[in-house]
Amino acid sequence: MSRPLEFAKYQGTGNDFVMVLDLNDDRGPLSSDDVAAVCDRRTGVGADGVIRVVRTDDEGASFFMDYANADGSEAEMCGNGIRCVGVLLHDQGVVDATSLGVLTRAGVKRLTLHPEVDGRVTRVSVSMGTPNFTRAAIPMHGPAWETFLGQPFEIGGGLTLTTSAVSMGNPHLVVFVDGDPATVHVSHVGPALERHELFPEHTNVEFVYVHDDVVHARVWERGSGETRACGSGACAAAVAANEAGLVPAKTIVRFPGGDVEVERRDDGEVVLTGDALRVFEGSVDLEELPAP
User: Fold this and answer.
1) Residue 31 φ/ψ region, left for φ over 0, alpha for ψ in the -120 to 50 degree band, beta for the rest
2) Which helix (H) or strand (E) holds 216?
3) 7 in helix, strand or coil?
4) Distances (CA, A) of 271 to 225, 232, 263
5) Residue 227 class from Cβ within 10 Å (0-12 exposed, 13-18 middle, 19+ buried)?
6) Cβ atoms within 10 A of the Cβ of 249, count?
């Protein structure tokens, strides 16, 4: 028995997603195995995650972003993914407003779409909320209201670097490195830090170097591995660097996949701005995909 899945592939700063528009909630959530099979880059469509968009009557939002990492695990929030949600809804003619609320597992996020002269939308700002530095919020083992900012951390191999932990609705460990993050063995260090015993729900990890007020970063995403960019990770990196006095409140975060702009406003709100582009649309039979 076939199980066709209609989808659109989108990417934001090189962070790519399989997008499923399920406005009538006919399909229902994909299983974790289906998500992992779809995201496989050799035997599936290939993506950093799957985003299913459904309607909601939640106060302040018309749509819910049901996001799953590439391994099928649920995630609270995805800054690049939610920008793609805004462009998808505009591309499909579901919305024509330039401002909308989208519910996530980290609460309602406000999107501002930036139309071009021809009416197309390829750039979106999203209010990501206020960062929380307490161990309880991250979550991170230790005294609940204690923070972990600018602290030495053993990252393996006897190497200790300065790190900061922050919640942007999901957990992040920002690791400050001494030079170009391209030299960091992210595929070796990232998994160990993601699953470090201090983080009961695991953590995303950003490797950050600041030069000329630009935050250069690579990211190891919880449940997805190294990706070309991460929206919430960009916010965590910029906020941690700002807390350390390394960058102003508004800065550029540069990933291998491109640049995003992060602004930490006076009221504490962090706003992320970057591109979101349609790659292609298609259909796949879930029954024909090899099991992950």
Assistant:
1) beta
2) strand 214-221
3) strand
4) 25, 10, 5
5) buried
6) 13
- CA triplet 104, 81, 52: central angle to 5 degrees? 65
Judge whether residue 2 has pLDDT over 90. Answer: no
Average pLDDT, the chain: 95
CATH superfamily, domain at 151-268: Diaminopimelate Epimerase; Chain A, domain 1 (3.10.310.10)
Q: In the CATH hierarchy, which fold is given to the domain comprising 4-128+276-288?
A: Diaminopimelate Epimerase; Chain A, domain 1 (3.10.310)
The pTM assigned to this predicted structure is 0.93
Residues of CATH 3.10.310.10 domain(s) within the chain? 4-128+276-288, 151-268
Q: Tell me the HSE value of 172 on the side-chain side, using a 13 A CA sphere.
A: 32
* Mean pLDDT on 71-99: 94
> How many degrees, rounded to 5, is the angle at CA 263 between CA 272 and CA 216?
80
Q: What are the angstrom distances between the C-alpha of 276 and each of 145, 191, 203, 231, 279?
A: 36, 27, 25, 11, 10
Catalytic residue positions? 78, 230
